[in-house]
Amino acid sequence: MKPQGKIFDDLAQMAGGAMSIAGGLRQQIREEIASHFDNLAARLDLVPREDLDQALAMIAKLRETQSALEKRLDALESGKTKKK
């Protein structure tokens, strides 16, 4: 029979190997999930965040311009009605 210390050493070695395998498996699963999300994003034709931020900034600027033009138009229209 094996001495009791040797059995515990063997068990510890097996547990260490199992943890190593589990760590590698976890990394592989993460990579697979990331790959699936990348493929899904490509199929859905999603817009990158940077492009969305640029478009939102452009929209905000256009809204400001529109508001300013509306105020000018209101001022011009109110000036014409006073002259009549």
Give a summary of the structure in a few sentences.
By secondary structure, the protein is mostly helical. 90% of the residues lie in helices and 0% in strands.
Q: How would you describe the overall organization of this protein?
A:
With 84 residues, this protein is an all-alpha fold. The protein has two helices and no strands. The protein has helices at residues 4-44, 49-83. The longest helix is centred in the first third of the chain and has 41 residues, at 4-44. The mean pLDDT is 86.
Order of helices and strands: HH
Q: Could you estimate the helical fraction of the residues in percent?
A: over 70%
- List low-confidence stretches: none
Contiguous helical run count: 2
- Rg calc: 33 Å
Distance between the termini: 116 Å
SS elements, strand count: 0
How much of the sequence lies in strands comes to under 5%
What coarse outline follows from CA principal-axis ratios? rod-shaped
